[in-house]
Amino acid sequence: MKKRKVTERHQIHEGSGNVYRDLGYPDAEEMFVKAQLVRKISDIIRSKGLTQVEAARILGLTQPKLSGILRGQFRGISERKLIDCLTSLGRDVEIVVKDATQRRANGKLTVVFA
After folding, report:
1. Could you confirm whether domain 2-88 is CATH 3.40.50.10380?
2. Whole-model pTM?
3. Burial class of residue 41, CB neighbours in 10 A (0-12, 13-18, 19+)
4. pLDDT digits (tens, 9 = 90+) for 12-51
5. Residues 79, 85: contact at Cβ < 8 Å?
């Protein structure tokens, strides 16, 4: 995280774009991907005008479980389950595997919504 001094008493820290990384979580990348998927699930539920009970039925979840997921409690939920939720809500999901750029030895996971 970059630091910029604003005043003598306060500093602003520019985030990395991943709040979980900024907070030091060891599974920051996984949590960030899940958060993006959950945000999209929430957007779709809202755009369809579904109640949590209706959405939970469509997704094969209980309403309390869906409520927890939508409030950011998704540690025990796999990325695969979240992808299944998206397809249950009428979205196609494509997984594209390509070579990493020459600047990086390891690949990375990116979520892109069309």
Report:
1. no
2. 0.80
3. buried
4. 878 888 888 898 989 889 999 999 999 999 999 999 999 9
5. no
